[in-house]
Specification:
By secondary structure, the protein is of the alpha/beta class. It is about 45% helix and about 20% strand. Helix 7 runs antiparallel to helix 8. Bound molecules: ligand C2E and calcium ion (CA) (2 copies).
């Protein structure tokens, strides 16, 4: 008969107190090609030998002095359990009860003495083959098991990592911070916002942005070695540190980080500039929990980029509560009829006559009093409430302009200007809404002007450009507000239907005292000419400023020296009986 080749190097242990039996089996198996045979005549040596090297098969005599095969069988099974090699019992007794006992103790098969060679070899080969495939299955299963365990660990690790930076993600940061808060020492939490990332993504795409963020994450990790750093969002990082004397004050570390990172970075061929804003919160109440501390740190982010790290304290909390109150009140401002418009005249510098007005929004709250636009417009822009306010302003201003048109107040080049925010410019039906209102109120489009800021345009230049183009085609004028304070690139002006540039008050302020301001104003006016735009000087508070603006070639001016913003009736009276503005 032929054994399976691969079974021939199996380790076979032959245990029989009769050396002749051992010899016979060894010779038989050797002749068959089995190479690793171990004969043992003293059953007491079996267990130590197995401990040295566990065989693949044991041929075990049942009747032996000192230790019976039956007991040895039980001991081996008990000691090695699942790993116990298969055992074939060698016995002269083939009575049922001996067989039954041996089977119960875990014997796999029997070989009767005297040996029938063919049978011996066949039984040994059968058992070895089945043991071999069993061992293979076990080893495959355990390999698979460890692979699954590895994958599971990897998936768990990934579930706690932010993929771009490889830093702990939100979930991990919260869990680790929660852990840190258990200890008695106070914990400082920083929320780090990387500014300009959105612009970089828009200009250069996401692969570049991700490289930059990964680079920033690495540098932050190096600089914040005593702290735990994680990635909170696209361009936001969170880090925290337990307060101990061993570390320098957290805020100093953060200031140094801010300085080190507020610069340009080389990514591929590009040099990209970033700046940071950092808000900090500190645990101190029993009720502190991770997400709240992170939220406080985020709320403490300074408004303007480049400002030093700011701590969340009681004052800030109070200011935020105030803002919250204002915000809630804002939601009902329109329905409660708490809004009205004031009109500030625009004066032609050459002729000294009124050529238009700017509508400015006012909010009169029954308890909170008069709230200036700089306090509620940014709030409304942030929350989307500006759309409701904006619609109200459009409706009110257009209906007012129509009334003035009927009363013959709008003549010649008169325009009523109103301010339109970024959110409104992003509305795909803004042009149609305005056109609809002009039709309802029968206002000629040439009397209407929209003031938009550069930053408002830049939010979505394509969408804003589309809406403005439609409006310009329908005869509405477009003015760029606060000109000179926003973007340094003027390329966008070429593609937009801009009729007027409003020179920001910042330039008009120093125009009389400061030659640098005067030069700036002069440049802006010359630039406007280049683009065939009219110019309006904003914030004229002294006749000297008006005179200089006129000298530099500005067309119109607006400011407290001419008139403060006023109710519609006062404006109408002013138009009918204009004062003598000589400067
Ligand atoms: P703005 O569009 O630049 O409006 C001019 C601001 O300068 C007005 O402030 C006006 O009252 C003020 N002003 C006019 N002449 C002078 C002057 O001689 N000196 C000084 N110091 N200030 C002068 P106001 O009314 O407080 O409005 C502030 C800002 O709020 C506006 O700046 C505009 O950006 C925004 N805003 C006002 N009304 C609306 C509106 O209906 N919709 C939108 N989206 N924004 C509005
Ligand atoms: Ca304006
Ligand atoms: Ca302005």
């Amino acid at each position: 008969m032929k054994s399976n080749e691969h079974l021939l190097d199996s380790h076979i242990m032959i245990v029989d107190d009769n050396p002749i039996n051992v010899e016979v089996l060894q010779v038989l198996l050797q002749a068959q090609g089995y190479a690793q045979l171990q004969g043992i005549c003293d059953p007491r040596q079996v267990e130590p030998a197995c401990k040295l090297q566990l065989p693949d098969l044991v041929l075990l005599d049942i009747q032996m002095p000192h230790l019976s095969g039956q007991v040895l069988l039980q001991r081996l099974r008990a000691h090695w359990g699942d790993r116990c090699p298969p055992i074939i019992v060698l016995t002269a007794h083939i009575d049922e009860s001996t067989r039954h006992q041996a089977l119960a103790a875990g014997a796999r098969d029997f070989i009767s003495k005297p040996f029938n060679h063919q049978e011996v070899l066949q039984r040994i080969s059968n058992i070895l083959a089945s043991h071999h495939s069993y061992k293979q299955r076990v080893s495959e299963a355990s390999a698979l098991e460890s692979l699954v365990a590895q994958r599971t660990a990897e998936i768990q690790r990934q579930a706690l990592r932010e993929p771009v930076t490889g830093l702990p993600n939100r979930r991990a940061v919260i869990a680790e911070l929660e852990q840190a808060l258990v200890a008695p020492a106070a914990v400082n939490v920083a929320f780090i916002a990387v500014d300009a990332i959105d612009d970089i993504a828009r200009l250069h795409g996401y692969p570049v942005t991700e490289q930059l963020i990964a680079l920033l994450g690495r540098i932050m990790g190096q600089r914040l070695q005593n702290a735990t750093l994680g990635c909170w969002g696209n361009a936001e990082f969170v880090c925290f540190q337990r307060e101990t004397h061993a570390f320098p004050p957290f805020i100093e570390t953060l200031q140094a980080l801010q300085q080190a990172l507020s610069r340009t970075f080389q990514v591929g061929d590009l040099r990209l500039g970033v700046t940071l804003r950092i808000g900090v919160s500190r645990s101190g109440h029993d009720s502190d929990y991770a997400e709240q501390l992170i939220r406080f740190a985020a709320l403490a982010l300074p408004e303007r980029t480049g400002e030093p790290p700011r701590l969340f304290d009681e004052d800030l909390e109070h200011a935020l509560q105030q803002r919250d109150r204002l915000h809630r009140a804002l939601r009902s401002a329109v329905s409660n009829q708490e809004l009205h418009l004031l009109y500030q005249p625009k004066i032609c510098l050459r002729e000294g006559r009124i050529v238009g007005a700017e509508a400015l929004l006012r909010w009169e709250h029954p308890e909170l009093g008069t709230i200036p636009p700089r306090d509620f417009i940014p709030l409304a822009e942030g929350s989307g409430e500006i759309l409701t306010l904006g619609r109200w302003v459009l409706e009110t201003a257009i209906s007012q302009a129509a009334a003035w048109q009927r009363a013959d107040l709008c003549q010649g080049d008169f325009t009523l200007a109103l301010n339109v925010s970024a959110r409104q410019l992003a509305l795909p039906d803004l042009a149609d809404e305005i056109t609809g209102l002009m039709q309802i109120h029968r206002l000629e489009s040439r009397f209407l002007e929209l003031e938009v800021t550069e930053s408002g345009l830049m939010d979505d230049i394509v969408q804003a450009g589309n809406q403005l183009q439609i409006l310009a085609q329908r005869g509405v004028s477009i003015a760029i507000d606060d000109f000179g304070t926003g973007y340094s690139s003027l390329a966008y002006l070429k593609n937009l239907p801009v009729h007027t540039l409003k020179i920001d008050r910042a330039f008009v302020d120093g125009i009389a005292q400061n030659s640098q301001d005067r030069n700036l104003a002069k440049t802006v006016i010359a630039m406007a000419r280049n683009f065939h735009c009219r110019t309006v000087g904003e914030g004229v508070e002294h006749p000297e400023q008006a005179r200089l603006l006129k000298e530099l070639g500005a067309d119109t001016a607006q400011g407290y020296w001419f008139a403060h913003p006023m109710p519609a009736e006062d404006f109408a009276r002013l138009c009918r009986e204009p004062p003598d503005w000589s400067f």
